[in-house]
Write a structure and sequence with these properties.
There is one protein chain. By secondary structure, the protein is of the alpha/beta class. The chain contains 13 helices and 21 strands. It is globular. The termini are far apart. The structure holds iron/sulfur cluster.
Length: 415
């Protein structure tokens, strides 16, 4: 009888994907959904904040109480906490994500081991995930060369490296042939694609757009300095979604310096105004409560954010991560204040999003992604959500919506 393995995944999309790869690479073992009957437990860990680390630790404690399974640790936490956990004999083996395709070999080791793997590893496969039958996530690069002071990612995911162009194009061509029309290019730092292979994101996107069946290309988060002159030339292309997510992280020039960011507020503003003039909806990431964010700097950040044509926001309260420069910075910001600030900036962007939708004149180009209680949910070219009531089965369809109602939370139509 085959031995049973249970996978416990923490963290982001990348980890979910890595767990999928491990599961599909298993040959000599069987997957179980039940921790209690597992002979081995693989923890695919996240280490992005101290909180993420303690979740992994408390999961190990729980397993120690209830199970006799051998515990293996992989994922980002393997690099930061792996050796310590192994020393404490709390895990049997530690391996880096580059070893995931060799999962059988890892699980078969009798002696405790630490194998951090290769931080320069590039996956063979590029398809990351699918939403329904119409949108595919394509991983085009991994790792990051930036060194933002609060971020551990470059230390656990390595420097930026690009996936093979031919492989990306081949995968997309195959998916387009099977009916996929929208492709979302993802990675740790998507905009750095091509720097190591003497090409660029804009060049790759132009090639993807030429593939038959490709209707819309979307990007994960890019950095302001990655919107180069070459990239600006593709802004009017019909296949580029009219929504870009450009990570600012803050809008106070002093805070950007403290956070060791490469963007500069004045230039960010010019860039956003250019994109706005071309009809783009613009999203960003924002961290509130990073050490050093005094009331004065916060107010400056809010004043600047009000001036920016923003429509979407991923905001986070700062979360300390040992091993980063920010972890020792002072003065720290009280957690309650960080949350209030988060709430304030979220409210501002919700309002801006509503204004944007109200002032837009034209049709919405919608890709319907899912159905819930008889209502269809989709996203338009500005990455705004729309709910559509219809008796027809619209799942996976592309629609041009002319008449719709702009509600405060999202757009709404009846077809
Ligand atoms: S660009 Fe993103 S992944 Fe890279 S160091 Fe900064 S926050 Fe981390």
């Amino acid at each position: 009888m085959k031995k049973k393995v249970y996978f416990k995944t923490f963290g982001c999309r990348t980890n979910l994907y890595d767990s999928q790869v491990m599961m599909s690479s298993l040959k000599e073992y069987e997957i179980t959904q039940n921790e209690d009957e597992a002979d081995s437990i693989v923890i695919n860990s996240c280490t992005v904040t101290n909180g993420a680390d303690s979740h992994v630790r408390s999961y190990i404690s729980q397993v120690e109480k209830t199970s006799k399974a051998k515990v293996f640790l992989t994922g980002c936490g393997a690099h930061t906490k792996g050796e310590k956990l192994l020393e404490e004999k709390r895990v049997h083996g530690v391996f880096g994500q580059s070893e995931k395709e060799q999962i059988d070999l890892m699980l078969s080791q009798d002696k405790p081991f630490y194998n951090p793997g290769d931080l320069n590893h590039v996956d063979e496969s590029v398809v990351d995930d699918f939403i329904g039958k119409s949108r595919a996530f394509i991983k085009i690069q991994e790792g990051c060369n930036f060194r933002c002071s609060y971020c551990i990612i470059p230390f656990v995911r390595g420097d930026a490296r690009s996936m093979d162009e031919a492989r990306i194009l081949e995968q997309i061509a195959r998916l387009a042939l099977n009916g996929f029309g929208e492709f979302i290019l993802t990675g740790t730092n998507v905009g750095s694609y091509g720097q190591d292979t003497k090409t660029s994101l804009a060049k790759l996107m132009k090639k993807i757009a030429q593939i038959r069946g490709v209707r819309r290309i979307r990007l994960g988060s890019v950095e302001p300095i990655q919107i180069t002159d070459e990239f600006k030339e593709i802004l009017d292309e019909p296949w580029l979604e009219k929504h870009l997510h450009i990570a600012l992280q803050h809008t106070s020039p002093t805070m950007l310096k403290i956070m060791n960011r490469r963007n500069v507020y004045k230039r960010d503003k010019e860039l956003f105004e250019l994109l706005d003039s071309k009809g783009f909806a613009i999203g960003t990431d924002f961290i509130t409560g990073h050490p050093g964010e005094s009331e004065e700097l916060w107010l400056e950040g809010m004043k600047n954010a009000k001036e920016l044509p923003l429509t979407h926001m991923h905001s986070f309260t700062y979360s300390k991560r040992d091993g980063t420069a920010s972890a020792t910075m002072k003065p720290e910001v009280n957690g309650k204040i960080a949350k209030q600030r988060l709430h304030e900036i979220d409210k501002l962007i919700e309002q801006k999003n509503y204004e944007f939708r109200k002032s837009f004149v034209g049709n919405l180009e919608v890709l319907v992604e899912s159905e819930k209680d008889g209502l269809y949910h989709g996203y338009d070219q500005h990455f705004n959500k729309i709910i559509i009531e219809s008796d027809e089965d619209l799942n996976g369809n592309w629609l041009t919506v002319k008449n719709y109602e702009v509600r405060e939370d999202c757009n709404y139509a009846q077809l």
